[in-house]
Structures are given as C-alpha cells and as structure tokens.
Design a protein that fits this description.
By secondary structure, the chain is of the alpha/beta class. The chain has 15 helices and 21 strands. The chain has a 7-stranded mixed sheet with strand order 15-16-17-14-13-18-19, with helices on both faces. A 6-stranded mixed sheet has the order 10-9-8-11-12-20, sandwiched between helices. A 3-stranded mixed sheet has the order 1-5-4, covered by helices on one side. Helix 14 links the parallel strand 18 (425-429) and strand 19 (447-450). It is globular, with a radius of gyration of 23 Å. It binds NADPH dihydro-nicotinamide-adenine-dinucleotide phosphate.
Amino acid sequence: MAGAREETPVSDADRCDNFIDGRFVPPAGGSYLPVWEPATGRVYAEVAASGRADVDAACQAAERAFPSWRELPTERRAAVLNALADRLEAQLERFAAAESKDTGKPITLARAVDIPRAVSNLRFFAAAAQHFATECHPTSADVLNYTLRQPLGVVAGISPWNLPLYLFTWKVAPALAAGNCVVGKPSELTPRTATLFAGLCGEAGLPPGVLNVVHGSGPDAGEPICAHPSVRAVSFTGGTKTGARIAGVAGPLFKKLSLELGGKNPVLVFDDCDFEAAVATTLRSSFSNQGEICLCGSRVFVQDALYDRFRDELVARAARLVVGDPADPATDQGALISTEHHAKVRGYLDLARREGGTILCGGQPVSLPGRCAGGWFLSPAVVEGLAPDCRTSQEEIFGPVVSLYRFRTEEEAVRLANGTAYGLASVVWTGSLDRAHRAVRDLQAGITWVNCWMLRDLRTPFGGVKQSGVGREGGWEALRFFTEAKNVCLKLSS
Ligand code: NDP
C-alpha cells in the first residue's frame, strides 16, 4: 500500500555524488536529496543536490577536455565507447539490480531491456560515428564545396526517470562519439545507474572531463545547465511542460535543442487484424514498465465488430498480470516511481469515473506482504466509456491505465487518434496493407508501428510531432544534432 514515507539512514556507499573532471565530488553546497525505493517506499540512498557552482565546475571541466577529445581520431573515440559497453555488459546483473531498485521496474525488464539497450546505444554510436560521412558538391571544374561536420563543444543531456540508463546513454553515446564533451543530468528520482556508469569511465579510458554527471533537481541543477554559456546544445527527454520551460531558457540563448516529450499514444485495432497478436501486444504496449514508457499506447480504438471480444480478452489478461516485488522474476508489474506519481495516477482514475468512465479492472493500490508493504503499487487498469475529448482521454497519465474506445470507420479512427495535442507514437493493427498505408499517411505521429510495437532499430529517426517534441534522435539524426555543419568552398588555383 502506498503509505507515509519513512526516513532511514544511508551509508556512504549509497550516496550518489557528482562526477566532475573524472572524479566523484560532493556538491558544492554540501546538501543531498533523499532517494526512495519505490518498491518499499523507503529512503535507501541520497543524491547530490547540486546548484550553479557544480554546473560551473562541470562545464569548465568539459571545456578543458574538449580540445583533446575532439582531436582524437574517431576510431579512438569509438574504442573508448566500446570499452565502456564491454564493462557495462560485464556488470549487467549489478546494473539491472540497481535500475530495478531505483525505478521499481521488474528486474526481468531491466535485465532484458534497460541495460542491454544501454550497451547497444554505446556500441551503435561507436560504429555509426565511424561510418558518418559528409557531402561534397563539385560546383565546377575548379570549385569544390564540401561540408565539415564539427563537434559543438560542451553539450547537455537531461534525462527522465522511466528508462534511466537507457535514455542517458541514448544521449551521451552520440554526443561523445561525435567529439563533444557532455554534462549530463539524470532525474533526481533515479540517479543510481548514471553514477555507476560514471564509475566505469576511467577504466574504459575516457579522459577526465569528457563526461560529467551533475545530480540534483530540475530547477536547481537542470536549468543552470540549460542556461550555461558553455553549453552549445541541450538534448532533453521528459515532460512537455518541462520541455517548454527548457525551450524558454535555452531558445533565446540560441542553443541547439532536441526535445523528446510526452505522449498520449493511440492504438488502432481494425476488425481484420490478427486478433491474438493485437491483444497480446496491446497488453504489453499498455502496461510494460507499469505504463511508464513514453511509447506506451494509452488510448486503444477498437472497431465495432471486434470491440466486445477484444475488451473482454484484454481485461482478462490485464487482471492476470502479477503485481509484485520488482526483484521477483515472476513479477509483471512493479511499483510506480513515487508516492506523488502514485497519487497522480489514482487521481486520474477518480477523474475517469467522474467523467463517465467505467474501470473494468484494476486501478487499486496493491498491498504486498513483507519488505514491499510500503511500496507504491497499483493494479493495471482498463477503462471504457470515456468521451474522446475529456481530460482523462487527453492528458498524459504515464501509468498502468489504458482506455478503450469504439469506432466504426477508418476515417473516424484516424480522426480520433489525431484528436490530442500530442503526436509521439501510434500503432495500427490490420490485415490490409492498403489500410495500413492510408493510416500511416494520416496519423499525426513521429513513429507508427504496423502490427507490432516497440520494435526498435537504432538507425531510424526517433521523435514526436505537435506537443510531443521537436527534433529527431537516432542514427544520423543524432550525429547531425551533435555536430555543426560548416560549408567549405575551395577554389583551385589552376
Ligand atoms: P520531467 O520533465 O519532470 O523531468 C525530466 C528531466 O528534466 C529530469 O532530469 C528533471 O529533473 C529535469 N528537469 C525538470 N525541470 C527542469 C528544468 N526546469 N530545467 C532543466 N531540467 C529540468 O519528466 P519525468 O522525469 O517526470 O519523465 C516523464 C516524462 O518524460 C513523461 O512526460 C514522458 O512522456 C516523457 N518521456 C518522453 C520520452 C520521449 O522519448 N519522447 C521518453 C521517456 C519519457 P528532476 O527529475 O531531477 O527534477
């Protein structure tokens, strides 16, 4: 049951200090914030509460490290990233356990997805940087235009709590591979794996100052990073409101910005789909990581003829999901990230009832015995009967809650799917290639999966439209973001 927070003392080993200039250092102000274990509702560590002075120190270290890091041949930088990947992979179990403890996600998920994906991010961008090429425009017999893509200098990576190391490395790897130095700020709620990762840097051969980690709250540590004159670009993943705030700070300073923001992703289930694949995958796309993935489908539109069967099957399977201790391999659903978030999600379920919705299953705080008695658990909820334009249907909940809607025609489904301020991901289930193509063309989203979900290829552009973000990550897009194009026009003397 989500209960009152209980303070417990922490040891030095559970302290997440900043990593600046190749060393772990306490915050300049000497203060720390508590870190809670979602599965127990108890404080288990503390994290540096950094401010401007720490950000300054990190930016200065990064500035100092930049000239030598930039001068290294790409192959050498790639070798360091690969060495980091090897070390991370060798400690997969340790990192997975830390990620699960910090976030409340099932250990099985951290083991199978979060940490392996962080390893892949490092290896992928180590390879990509070595294949990155630029354009050449031969203008005439004696004039050649070519493009240089130069690293920017000091760049910032600000990441959220839901996929901590996965998203931290998704920013850090391309930035470093392209020759930049990084000041990274993980979420204060989940600082653990970024700290452990920083601890691998020295032995992997990353020179001091090339990667710096500054912990702390968004306003106190994150915002000074975005405003810092040394920082040339900010790659941010998080909520839409925070993204707007960061754009307001960094925009007038003409910094490059990549904003990966919230979503209210639609899933369109047509009556000609593969039923078993659609229902099994929709269960995953609704509730993986407790629904705390920006790509989770939260609005499921089902065609009339299939609606009742699909609803009954989804509800039956959701009710069978095991909510339990994240450390137990039998657990499907772990704990929500914080008591505030637990209350927020429950608040949306109350709102859903007031807005005319029926909670078909779940949505209840779950009391677990033993060490998890104080954890922030919630059973997965399926809701129906909501109007598409009510708040529950429009606002991002970011928890184990999915709502079902009935539609008749393809045109109606696409119109309803597009009817929010967001446009991150969408999913289409159909046996018709023509219908899939039409839907893909008309859906307002940065990503559309057809007859699948979360199949990721790191070469593809990743990002959202509308209030889900600006810019693209992944593949060449990331390497372009972390470099500045310079045109060189060369006239031959002869
Ligand atoms: P937040 O926007 O609250 O925080 C994201 C990061 O920004 C955290 O490190 C946070 O620090 C920091 N931050 C907060 N305020 C500021 C500020 N004023 N200046 C600079 N940095 C700041 O998001 P959450 O961590 O709650 O993550 C959940 C959100 O992330 C959801 O909306 C989800 O959709 C979105 N998301 C989007 C993804 C995408 O690819 N589009 C992927 C994953 C998540 P701190 O937490 O320490 O305060």
